[in-house]
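Example record used in the benchmark description.
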Amino acid sequence: MSRRLTVIAAAVGLVAFGLTGVWAFFAPHSFFDTVATYPPYNRHLFHDLGAFNLGLAATLALGLGRWRGLVVGLGGGSVAAVMHAVAHWLDRNQGGRSSDPWLLSLFALVLVAATMVAWQQDRTGRPA
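Model output (structure tokens):
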């Protein structure tokens, strides 16, 4: 496959994951009513779906930006982890453990910090 076709495929994936991620995360009931009509409705499930789709979109965006693999992987993982932590804060009264929002936030913070280190190393030319 030529470079042009792979870039087009990545861009299409970025748009698809980005749009579905935003929709599922920020309008979960609308997403359920329109796309994923598998009862019962579970708001947290759609928040999670949106969080991880946004992580996939970020991964493709970073890849299209020609960042090194570690920055791409950590960056996409960071977006997913941050959004997943936000979902657990939003849905903390719907079940799960009371420690989930805190632990997921700590995990997201570690990934974001690692992303920043890898990004800085990539910019300075040192090995990531």
